[in-house]
Design goal:
12 helices, 13 strands, alpha/beta, about 40% helix, 4-stranded antiparallel β-sheet, about 375 residues
Length: about 375
């Protein structure tokens, strides 16, 4: 059956961490998976990864310095992603530079150029005087090699212009039809012309549109990866779970890349989870005789849902109260959830209603449903 709405994680930067030592990095992955399970969306969608970063370029250069690398950048990134997960079969992954995202990006860019939503034109930019890295339109030290001096350069670039009355981000770009006013303000406080082509060693190459040596800005590319994941499932809406800070950094660059041929990208926000403080719950776990299965459910399913309810972030001091709420709801969970209750819960989720996470009966039904689906 075609899924009309699906949830995916905001692409995770492929940095120097593992989920074992930084479980908070998996918050959006866990939230998207839990919401999909509650909405009856199977099989699981791929985990999305952001590999087009300057830090990743520098890491790969350091790895290959003075030697011949046995495999290229894509396989290097893939090996790093695999190492993030515990041992065992790795979930399906999709990156912002993989074939699905690249194919869709070039199609979307071609469509937008034809419609005039994007343009290629000469721009005065700043390039590093030492390595040639594109610093953007501002004069600042090179982030690639550290050189202090940049030089002006007049080059052809992919750009997006915004009209004076055009909103970069509206409430309709969020699941439920509303989003924080301050976030919409941040997104709107960007230059009227955005530079969408960058110098990176890896990414969605723009050679086919006449910009050799340049790639699509990764802040635009990660939106396209999200759309690609949704389109592969025939979705009308693909909802990206992300934090407010992450959305503030990328939303403006996704303005021209949030919809394509019947698929629309929406944001849904969640807060941070204080996983570093879970060790302090040990005595409370023992006091309520929580099973290993329920403990895993609390940490990997309920806490992401709680962070979806409280987008400002879960304070470490709030963990004991959340554990009590989870434990009460888990004890009240029915052996089987009536279909009508599940349908009502799905309706609320797809409408962006998060209040049920604090309501005992709907939460109990959700925990029962996810337990049966696991």
């Amino acid at each position: 059956m075609t899924d009309r709405t699906v949830f995916v994680n905001g692409p995770v930067q492929n940095g120097a961490f593992t989920f074992a030592d930084r479980p908070g990095k998996a918050a959006s992955i866990r939230l998207a998976a839990t919401l999909n399970r509650l909405c009856g969306i199977e099989p699981a969608l791929p985990h999305l990864w952001n590999t087009v970063t300057l830090a990743a370029d520098m890491r790969y250069r350091a790895h290959t310095a003075g030697s011949v690398c046995a495999f290229g950048r894509a396989r290097f990134d893939d090996a790093l992603i695999t190492a993030k997960y515990p041992t065992g079969p790795r979930p399906e992954v999709l990156t912002d530079a993989g074939d699905p995202a690249t194919t869709l990006a070039l199609e979307m860019i071609d469509t937008a150029l034809t419609a005039g939503a994007l343009q290629i034109r000469l721009m005065v930019v700043r390039r590093c005087a030492s390595c040639g890295h594109l610093a953007g339109t501002a004069d600042r030290p090179c982030r690639s090699c550290g050189h202090e001096r940049t030089l002006p350069s007049r080059d052809r670039h992919l750009v997006a212009d915004r009209g004076p009355a055009e909103e970069v981000l509206t409430g309709e770009d969020f699941l439920g039809g509303c989003g924080p006013a301050h976030l919409r303000g941040i997104a709107g406080n960007v230059p009227g012309t955005l530079l969408l082509s960058r110098t990176r060693d890896h990414g969605i190459a723009l050679d086919q549109i006449g910009l050799p040596g340049l790639v699509l800005d990764p802040r635009a590319g990660l939106h396209i990866a999200v759309l690609a994941a949704g389109r592969a499932r025939g979705a009308e809406r693909v909802v990206m779970a992300t934090t407010t800070n992450a959305a503030a950094n990328v939303a403006a660059y996704g303005q021209r890349f949030r919809s394509h041929r019947g698929t629309r990208l929406l944001y849904t926000l969640h807060g941070s989870i204080p996983y570093d403080h879970l060790g302090g719950l040990g005595p409370r776990y023992r006091a309520i005789h929580i099973s290993d299965l329920d403990r895993e459910m609390f940490e990997t399913q309920f806490l992401p849902l709680a962070s979806w309810k409280d987008t400002g972030g879960i304070p470490a001091g709030g963990l004991p109260a959340l554990l009590r709420r989870f434990h009460r709801a888990r004890r009240a969970a029915p052996p089987e959830v009536p279909p009508a209750i599940l349908d009502h819960l799905r309706t609320r989720i797809l409408a962006g209603d998060r209040r049920w996470v604090s309501e005992k009966a709907p939460l109990a039904a959700a925990l029962a449903a996810t337990s049966q689906a696991s």
